[in-house]
Amino acid sequence: MKAEPVSGAGEAATVKLINPQADFAQDKYPVAATLDGNPGTAWSIDPHVGKDHVAVFEIESSRQTGFEKGTKLTFTLDFQFNNKHALGRFRLSVSGAPATPDRELKRFAAMKLTDPWQRLAAVYQLKGEPQAIDQLVERRTKLAGPIGDLFIQEPNKDWQRAVELYTKGITPETADALLLSKRARAYEGLKNWEAAAADWSRAATGNPEGAKLLAEFARRLVADGQVPFAKAQFEKSQALYERSLAADPDNDLLVPELAQLLWDKQENEDPSRWTVLKPSEMKSKGGATLSKLPDDSILASGKNTLGDTYTLVAQPKVAQVGAIRLEALTHESLPNQGPGRDEQKDRGNFAMVNFAIRAHVPGTQPGPIDVSRVAADYFALDLTTTHWNITGGQSRPHTAVYLVKQPVDCKDDARLEFQMEFSGSAEWPLQNLGRFRLSVSNDPAVFDREEKRFAAMKLTDPWARLAARLRAERSQRSGFAILEQSTPTGGRLRGKEADHRARCPV
Questions:
Q1: What's the pLDDT at 273?
Q2: Which end of the chain has fewer CB atoms within 10 angstroms, the N or the C?
Q3: Separation CA 164–CA 394 (nearest Å)
Q4: What is the sign, positive or negative, of the torsion defined by CA atoms of 68, 5, 56, 333?
Q5: 8 Å CB contact between 297 and 384
Q6: Sign of the C-alpha dihedral, residues 462, 467, 470, 472?
Q7: Distance between CA atoms of residues 337 and 319, nearest Å
Q8: What is the rounded CA–CA span in Å between residue 20 and residue 101?
Q9: Does the bond joining 294 to the residue before it have cis omega, within 30 degrees of 0?
Q10: What is the pLDDT of residues 361-388, one digit of tens each?
C-alpha cells in the first residue's frame, strides 16, 4: 500500500500494514501470509467458497496521516498460481476510528461461535450491553459456564468478568467440577491464588481426576513463581494419587502421573538449583517482537521470517555458571500452542540449528562459553550442543540442559550473550522458537540430575518410571510409605527398583 498527494507534488510513501485479521482462513493459509513477504505463502478461504469474507488490516503508525490537500492510496494485491486463484469481486474501505480493528476482531469471533447462547451474548457484548448478558445468565444459570467462557479468550478476555459470570452458576452446594475448574482458572488469570486454590480443592473433591487437576495447578503456580502455594498443592495431589494407587494397586495409568508429580515436586522444593535470567537486551534479526512475560519467559510475536536469529543479553546474578537450561514453553498465541512458530507444515514446531553463548566478564576479553554435553526431555533427529528440533512434540513444553565445559566465573557486572539461530529451510519454513526461558546454575551436578530425570521420563514401563524416581531421591523414601504398605504395590515397586539398579548401578 502506498500513499501520495492527489496533486502529484511529492513522493509516494509506503504505508506499512500490520495485525491482519479475517473472518475465515484455510488451514495453513492464514491471512498473516498476505504481509510476510514470502511469495510461497498466501491467504485462502477454501472450502468456504460462495460466501462473503472480510479481512482487516491496521496501519503501523498513527503518524501516517493523509496529505493536506488530499491523499491517493494505491493498493497492490498479488495472487498465486498464475492468477487462477485471484479475487473475483471485492471492495476496499478505510476507517479513521482507532477502535475499528478491535471491534471487527470481536465481530469475527462472534460469527465463528456455534453455540446460539454464546453468540447472543457476544452480540450483546458488541453492542455494549453487559446488563443484558447478566440477565441472560441469571435467568438460565446453566449458561454461566459457556457464556463465562467468552471472557477467558481473545478478543474479549476479561478475567474479572469471567469470574462474575461463572459465580452466577455457583452456590456453596455446587459440586460441578467443570464449572468450578473454569472459575479457578479465571482466578488464576487475576493472580488470586487463594481463591483459585479453594475452587480447585472443591473441583477435586470426589473427582477421579482430582489428583491430576491439583498437579496441573501446582505446575502453573511454579511457572508463576508461587513456590509456597505450589508446595501445598503438590502435597495434596500426591496424597490423592497415593490413596488411589493403594486402593487399586493394578492401576498402571496412575503410576506415570505420580512419578512425574514427584519429580516436579522435588524440583519445586529446591528452586535454587536454577536462576532464571532476566534479559536486558532482546533482538530478532528477522524483525519479530520479543516480549518479556511476568514469569521472565520470552514470547515472540509479529513478524515470523525464514531462519530468524534471536540475540539476548542478561546478567547471570550467580558467582559461577556451570550449567544452562533452555525451556521451550507453550502459549495460546502460538500455532498449535507452540512452543514453535511454524504455522504452515509442522504447526508449533521449532528447529534450532545453532546455539552460541558468550561471556562478557569485566577485566577479560569477551569469549565463547564451550558446552561439553546436552540433554533434553524430548527431541527429534539429532540432539547436539547446537541443534534441537522437537518434531512430533508440539503443544507441550520441553526442556534442554547444557553442561558448561569449564565453569565460568561471573563477577557482579558480568553479562551472558545468547544467540539462537533457527532453520532457514524453505521446505520446513518458519520454525522459529515462540516462547522460551533461560536459566543458569552454579552447580554443574544439576546436569547429571536433569539427565537422569529425562531418562526416567522416557521409560515406558510406568512402574519402572516410579522406581527410578524412588531411587533418585532415597532420602525421601519415607514419603512413599502408603504405597509400600500395600503388598501388591510395594512388591512391584521393589522389583522394578531392583531392575533399575541392575541396569543403572551409578
A1: 82
A2: C
A3: 34
A4: negative
A5: no
A6: negative
A7: 36
A8: 9
A9: no
A10: 887 888 999 999 999 999 998 899 999 9
